[in-house]
Write a structure and sequence with these properties.
heterodimer; A: 346 residues; alpha/beta; Rossmann fold; 8-stranded mixed beta sheet; globular; disordered N terminus; B: 328 residues; 4-stranded antiparallel beta sheet; 10 helices; 30% helix
Amino acid sequence: MSDALTAPRATLDAGAPMVELRGISRRFEKKLDFAGKIARRLGAPVREEIVHAVDNVDLTIRKGEVVGLVGESGCGKSTLGRMVAGILPPSDGTILRDGIDVLRLSSAEAREINLRTQMIFQDPYASLNPRMRVSDIIGEAPLVHGLVTRAGYDAYVDEQMRRAGLDPGFKRRYPHQFSGGQRQRIGIARALAVKPDFIVCDEAVAALDVSIQAQILNLFMRLRTELDLTYLFISHDLGVVEHLSDRVVIMYLGRVVEEAPSETAFARPNHPYTQSLLASVPRIEGRKRAFSVVMGEIPSPLNPPPGCHFHPRCPHAMERCKTEKPELKEVAPGQRSACHLNDGAW
Amino acid sequence: MAVPTLEVRNLRTHFFTRAGVVKAVDDVSFTVGRGKVLGLVGESGSGKSVTGFSIIGLVDPPGRVVGGQILFQGRDLARISEEEMRDLRGNRIAMIFQDPMMTLNPVLRVDTQMIETVLAHKKVSKEEARQRARDALGMVGIPSPDERLKSYPHQFSGGMRQRVAIAIALLHEPDLIVADEPTTALDVTIQGQILAEVQKLAATTGTSLIWITHDLSVVAGLADDIAVMYAGRIVEKGDVSDVLDTPLHPYTSGLIGSVPSRNRRGEPLRQIPGMTPSLLNLVPGCAFRSRCPRAAGACLAEPEIRELIPGREVRCFHPMNEAPEQAA
């Protein structure tokens, strides 16, 4: 069992890039209303409000890899995940899927390529249509896309359900007749039914109880080896990400601040934000101890601080951090960090 | 320490629904000493929140406390009138909810709400009440409390709102605070800040705390004692370190084992099979039986909670410190 699970790790380096993001940004604009436009005409200092949810991110995900995307609320991790999954178009930048520029494809070609990326959502209560039977939730897409014929439909749905750990005898039921963990399994079966090779999981276990969470995480790992899947695993739970991922990407206010292999990121975090994030996580091994404290709160993405976004909370902030945006630079093999502190040592 | 702050004895809170009686809390007993923190841990539907609501007298129909005693400084809260309870609630006993907007009124300024709370239980001038509110905000680490008093709840971030809710709970320096998943919805860095504040407060003011959560890791760092609930019952309780280091109940052991940091990276997590049973049609006997690796014939009967080792209680026929019985 453990051999089967460690096998893909060994071949990791050989993996060709499956998804490449180059300079991806996403801005959300709040347009001025009528009164606002008039006020501006009259010289009032009003502007459209722009949120840079994702700001110039480069990211490569190789075949067979599990990449963990970590950050606190509002850091842009879900927005990034949605762009990778093809649900949300980026404002700027290029997305390459197996070397093909997805954004330049015709809609028919894009649909075909997007089918190979599927997404699993946080809330299994909200992401399943309550009026559809489980068999239709799982079987509709493969039928529409011609992956299965009417004749083979029932057998196909049964197979998908069994693979996700569901009893095919329940396929005539509706989502409300299932528990949270089972609903998440339905979501997984639905995603896998169209034979994707890349899965984006957005907080896929966050709503589940601890004992159920372990079951679903184990299912993810089993499916990875069985179906040779690649994952982008978005989560705020560092314990889960550490357990599952080969590589970790840490975001703060729309930017990637650090990227490293899991062992390195958790053993030798470079960026001060990563360090404080790791120090804040309560550990079951920790007993009656003083909780370490990161000062302050995440600033509003509407008006992020200039220079390094983290400088108002950073214990090592210098004058330079307030004006100059640090670039992501390699600090150790495979580990990249966006911090001015590294310039002195390297 | 003669009389503990809170002593709950054989508490039963049942919900009389159309589909049948739900025994949400069934025979729950525990003690919280002065200045101590009890972690009440369990998964959804285990009855941990209902236990908290029962203590503070906020169980709504069809739910009702049907048995047992809730001795708060020797007084049985299950037997006192609603008026007496109202006098205690918010004054000597306070509650913090997962969602701070359950405490805060969105259309009133924070100062209005806090001063009202002070005046509800103390005969002081409005100015003194404002002073008290400002001190409480300062105590939970809210910067420039004077300005923040004039804000509305929506002008605060999630973490700040929870701090305001905690500050309101602290206004009368209560002897007991019941906190129901107060940091679950918050980011880790904010959670860390709030846990640090709470820890400091419990240590300095002598307030006792019941911290209800599903997160064993939070309890590990915060609590003195831990009580683990499953299907309306406490299955194990004891000192935090003892329980987490050497769990006696198979359920506690399974829960701890399924925490990712307790497993080797990349290997399958140890998991508890199956799912939590519905409280509506609990089969007689041990409720954990169908998911338990150590279950045997004896488990068809109801296990009583017993003190296995001094200070360690467990509700199990086959605790982890004994060799498993051969399945019949």
